[in-house]
Design goal:
about 170 residues, Alpha-Beta Plaits, four-stranded antiparallel beta sheet, about 25% strand, globular
Length: about 170
């Protein structure tokens, strides 16, 4: 059984959705997952097993009261998403927002509205270069509200670490 990563949206940000990583690991193990490892403190879980996103979301909600949405990715899919990154620069300033499928009809800001930031929409991810950091992004919240609730972003540094932990 290959290992996968679960990227939970909104865990341990803003203080309203705190889930201890030990609790998260225990939930995965209770559902039969093996080799469960959390990465950082923001809802990145590497594991082996056949659990579904629905089962994980339901069990986390029952155990913690937090209702996360999540993306489950095999290593090969995550590598493909990362290989499509169109920008170069500090990996902590490069954001990848992953989702099942990017909506086809999007209202996008113009390059002039974003400068010096850059944005490119791919088939299953949105790529952003944010030289001043994510917290100072010029992208308005309305842009992100166009995407499905399971869409979740990570910087390139974090995703590269996760790929390394997933092994070959």
């Amino acid at each position: 059984m290959s290992r996968r990563v679960a990227l939970l949206r909104g865990i341990n940000v803003g203080g309203n959705s705190t889930v201890p990583m030990a609790t998260l690991r225990a939930i995965f193990e209770e559902l039969g997952c093996t080799e469960v490892v959390t990465v950082l403190n923001s809802g990145n879980v590497i594991f082996g097993g056949d659990v579904t996103a629905c089962d994980l979301e339901r069990r986390i909600r029952e155990e913690t009261g937090v209702s996360p949405r999540l993306q489950l990715l095999e290593r090969s899919r995550l590598v493909g998403i990362l290989e499509a990154m169109p920008f170069e620069g500090d990996p902590s300033r490069l954001l990848v927002t992953i989702m099942g499928a990017v909506p086809t009809e999007l209202t996008r800001p113009t390059p002039a509205e974003l400068a010096p930031e850059r944005l490119q929409v791919g088939p299953d991810a949105v790529y952003s270069f944010m030289p001043d950091g994510i917290s100072k992004s010029r992208l308005k919240p309305a842009f992100w509200k166009q995407f499905p609730p399971e869409a979740t972003g990570r910087n390139l540094r974090t995703l590269t670490t996760i790929v390394g932990m997933l092994g070959a």
